[in-house]
Specification:
The structure holds 2 protein chains of 2 kinds. By secondary structure, chain A is mostly helical. Chain A is built from 4 helices and no strands. Chain A is about 50% helix and about 0% strand. Chain B is built from 6 helices and 7 strands. Chain B has a 7-stranded mixed β-sheet, sandwiched between helices. In chain B, helix 1 runs parallel beside helix 2 and helix 2 runs parallel beside helix 5. Chain B is globular, with a radius of gyration of 16 Å. Classes of the chains: A mainly alpha, B alpha/beta.
């Protein structure tokens, strides 16, 4: 699970072009939205694509995104439970 | 009309009022833009999310607009290749049915006038803006259009510009007009 958290931080920085953010700045329980990362609704859509592309998870109900993308911890837990690749 | 500030970006150089303010021999426009962003200390993280056309327009505009009040500055821009550079990148992400992952972040830049939107957001402009697709840079056309805006009293200044980018070929020529 720890590896997955680190992997997610790398991927989020890469996919969302967070050039000015260092991995150490993203804490496992920090809110991904509404916090210091400055993510917006387009970023949320990119995270849905990331789940599909990297982990084979198709989010049937996008409304669940708020819960799943609350933090690195919640995202990692959801991926562990639902990944198909 | 008076042309008060002029910025040209091409061949890895940013020139403002005939003075080279940044120069860097990088291989790609993306690298050049990133280095220019750092060097000019722009401190606007959303820059990294923009497509290359918006980065070009943004860089050329920032060095002219700076941190001054531009709530009454309108924007009139033009280019030849529209958003074709980004359109192709988006097309690549949906070409294959087996690898079909359309990117929302790329999709939002598949219109050329998004670049003037980015400038408007940065400077909180709610003035008129226009983006024309022309065969070549036509300063008279842009100036005539800008003059109408200025004469109407809807803006005090107009930032005009030619921002052409396709793959690694790019040129920005941006200037500020007043009556």
């Amino acid at each position: 699970m720890e590896n997955l958290r680190e992997e997610l931080k790398h991927k989020i920085i890469e996919v969302l072009n967070l050039e000015d953010v260092a991995i150490e700045e993203i804490k496992d329980t920090d809110p991904l939205f509404g916090g210091g990362l400055g993510l917006d609704s387009i970023d949320a859509l990119e995270l849905i694509v990331l789940l599909d592309k990297e982990y084979g998870i198709k989010l049937a109900d996008p409304k669940k995104g708020k819960e799943i993308f609350a933090s690195i911890d919640t995202m990692a837990k959801f991926i562990e439970e639902n990944r198909t690749k | 009309m008076k042309k008060t500030d002029i910025c040209t970006i091409e061949h890895s150089k940013i020139i403002v009022n005939n003075e080279v303010i940044f120069e860097n021999q990088t291989e790609t426009f993306s690298e050049f833009a990133k280095e220019a962003y750092k060097n000019l200390a722009l401190n606007y993280p959303k820059f990294h999310k923009m497509d290359n056309l918006s980065k070009l327009a943004f860089l050329a505009s920032e060095v002219i607009l700076k941190d001054e009040d531009h709530s009454r500055t309108a924007l009139v821009f033009a280019n030849k290749s529209s958003s074709l550079d980004t359109d192709f990148k988006y097309q690549e992400s949906i070409n294959s049915q087996e690898n079909y992952f359309p990117s929302p972040a790329v999709f939002v830049y598949t219109l050329p006038n998004i670049c003037v939107g980015e400038i408007s957001i940065k400077h909180q402009m709610q003035t008129e803006n226009a983006f024309f697709i022309l065969d070549e840079f036509d300063e008279k056309f842009l100036n005539d259009y800008s003059e109408q805006i200025l004469q109407s009293g809807k803006a005090d200044k107009v930032l005009c510009g030619w921002v052409e980018l396709y793959q690694e070929s790019y040129k920005a020529f941006v200037y500020l007009l007043t009556l």
